Structures are given as structure tokens and as C-alpha cells.
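Hi all, a correction to my earlier message: I attached the wrong file for DUF674 family protein. Here's the right sequence:
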Amino acid sequence: MCDSKEAEFSLKVMINKEKTKVLFAEVDSHFADILLSFLTLPLGRIIKVLNKHYGDDEAPTIGSLSSLYHSLVNLDSSHFCTEGAKQTLLNPRSSIEDEYERIKLDIADFQPPKYLQCRYHYGFDKCRSVSVYYDSINKIHACGCGPNSIREDEEEKECKAASGDGVFTINTASFVISDDLHILPVETGLLGIILILGITDADKAEAINVTFGFSEIMSLLKASLISQTPLSDLILNKSRQANSVIVAFEPESSFSHLEDEQNPDSKKMILKVVIQKSTSKLLYVQANDDFIEFLFSFLNIPLGGVEHLLAGKTCAKAINNLYLSIADLIDDKYFNTPDTKDRLMKPNVAHGCISNNHLLPLTEESLPDTYSGASWFSAKFPNGQGSYLKGPRTYHVTDDLVVTPLCVVSILSSLNKQKIVIYDDVEEVELQIGPKEGLSILKAALTSTSALSDALLNNISIKQPKPEL
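and the right structure:
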């Protein structure tokens, strides 16, 4: 993988006369590729690279995803089918990670893809099984070879020059990016850009030059998730004091756009939701391992995949604009290949990452062509169980998706500290979770630190406590 952290970009930026707002920035195709690559990053990878860059104390809070990821880190490996299962969730892969080496500045911190394959020779077939889980094939004996027959195959790739073909956009193109991350080709023309972006004071605008390096790109990734004006935040130092987003959750009343894609095999999961009746506050949720695995599966979904599932209507407004620009503002001729637009607007989950407990209509990337021979099949999950977590087990989940093993003693102590009268002021409601509820939780998790309340409380009727006489 190329070491590209020293790469820099020169941006021509137009700001208003008061120097309080970025109107737009003009960038080359390499910078546009980096911005579009945000959509290909799995949610867990975003949390990981931001934590690594900022450190635990300064890392931004991305909705409830940050606490969900930290819960995964802290959950003992004994809860997982194998250690490889946990590591796969902690280090979610991208379906296009083998192409990141062609991005001039790689923020994803991906390693070359590794696949495990058997050494078995059967007639003219060289191999019978392949997996992304290092502790999988030899345990399930899926290939019939028995133990000690596995070799690791790491795809060695020559580091390509950053000035070569782009990953998403053609090299000859230049683009304009608005403060809220609309992106459109420079060839749209000045009047077109002003009209599309709704700029009203362009006649008094001032041009400045700004240099973006690795640190600024990381700040842009963070700001795009927690701000509606990420360029002004960075370039004009208008960033909010808080390190987390404050945005009103917008519940989705209908997910009709996905009716044809719903997984026909999806099952309903059962939650026990514990609520304080006097305040209608969600205290915690008691859930089985299938629901916890569903939550952890969020970390494998690319950001563009979340946008697709929610029809570009997440509460991360800047990311919505970036996503919808691909469909509405950038003509096909500016993309590098005919299928680039589809790969950005509906990125697949990496191969071997969709468990039996997923509720959402996700699509998994196929194995690379290297492994597409007729004799190959994929051992998708450790021990062939189709899941990450061992079961049956029960877990405690807080409103911001902190997951811990269920411990009645600790729950009781917590309620007592909050002076909550358990018998009079606490109600337990059983709730079914299907695809619609699952999408609501995903939407809330991206920006809200009260994901379960935002997603579920509208579906619960709470019995108010009787007034004291």
C-alpha cells in the first residue's frame, strides 16, 4: 500500500465578504476521489480511523456508533464464535479496498486483502474452499482436506502512481464543492454553479488558497458527519465547540422505496424495552444475541450503503448532499467506468460479512476473479455457523448502544442510584424488531446518542403511573 499521508492538495476557495462562510471550493479529480471514497467506508472503519487519528480523548462522537464500536472492543472474545469473528467486526473491510492504493491520499488504513484457501488437490481442481476468516476453514473442514491444509494468500499489488487513472472520476475533470458538500463539475459553468448552489452574494466573494493534507482530510471526514457546513468549519475555523453532532432526529414513516428489496427470510427479533413511566424515558433494553449481532452488523455497512437503505435521507445532511450529487449533479461521462456510479450509490458489503441475523436488504461483494473457478466455494463464517456471536445469551443495551452482558445486580444498582422506584415507575414492554424498526435504529445510530429512544419510542404505548393521593 502506498504511503500517501504526505500528499497535499491546493484548493481555490471562494468565501463571502464577511469571511464567515465558504461559498464553494474548486478541486481536482484526485480530491474528488477522496471525498467520494467516504461513501465506500464501512461505518466501523470510519470510527476506527477517527479514533486512531484523534486519540481516545479527542475522538469525535459519531451518533451512537462510537459507543457501539467501543462495546465491541470491550466485549470478551468468549462471546464470539472465534477470535477471527471479533477481529473481522473490529476491522471491517471495504468491497473496493484493493483499489484504495490508487487514491492519492488514503485515509482508510486498509491492508491488502487476505484470503485463506486449502492446499487440497483433487483431480484437476487445485482448491476447494476459500474464506476471509483465518480460523475458519480448518475448523469446519469444509473442503474435506482436514486440518493443517490451509495456506494464506495475500494479494501482492504493485503500488500504482497517484497520477495514474483515478478510482472514481476521470483525471481531466475538475469539480466544485459547496460548503454543505454538493459536488458538481466545473464545466457546469459559473452561472449554473451559482444557481444550483443558491449563492446570492457571489459578486462580493473573495478568493483564497487553502492547502489540505492528511490531517485536514480527516477533519473533513469528521465534519461531514457532525456538521451541515463542514468546509466553513475547517477553512474558516467555524467548528462547533462540542465534538459531537446535535441534530434533530427525523423519523421515517415509510420505507416503501425498499419494499422490493426486503429480505424474504428476515425474522422478527424480540426486545424487552424497560421504560420509566413518569418521564417516558427509555432506561435500557434486554436483548438476545441475534439483536446484538444485528447491531454489530451496522459496522460492516458502507456509508453509501446506509444512504441507499435510507434513500439519501439520513440526518447527516452533508453526506446526503454528497450522495445525491452523484445521481443528480455529476454526469456519467465524468466517472471512470460505466459501473462507478452504481458502486458509489449502492456499495456492497465486503465478502463474507453478512450474517444470518441481518434484517436489511444488503448485498455482498463476490469473491475476486482469482477465486471464481467452478470448484471454489466460500466458507463465509467461523465454524460454518453463519453468525459472529455464540448463543443463546442475553445482553443489556443502553439508549446510545452500549452493549454489555446482562447483569441483574448492576442494573438494579444503576436504577437505585437514579432513585427510580422499580415497582411503581418502571414498565417492561416487549417489542418486535423487523426491517422497518431495524432501519430506524440504523438511521438514528448515525447521528443520535439516543438511538433506541428516537427509533422505537413512537411504537410504544406507555402506561402512566397513578398519581399519589
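Sorry for the mix-up. The mean pLDDT is 82.
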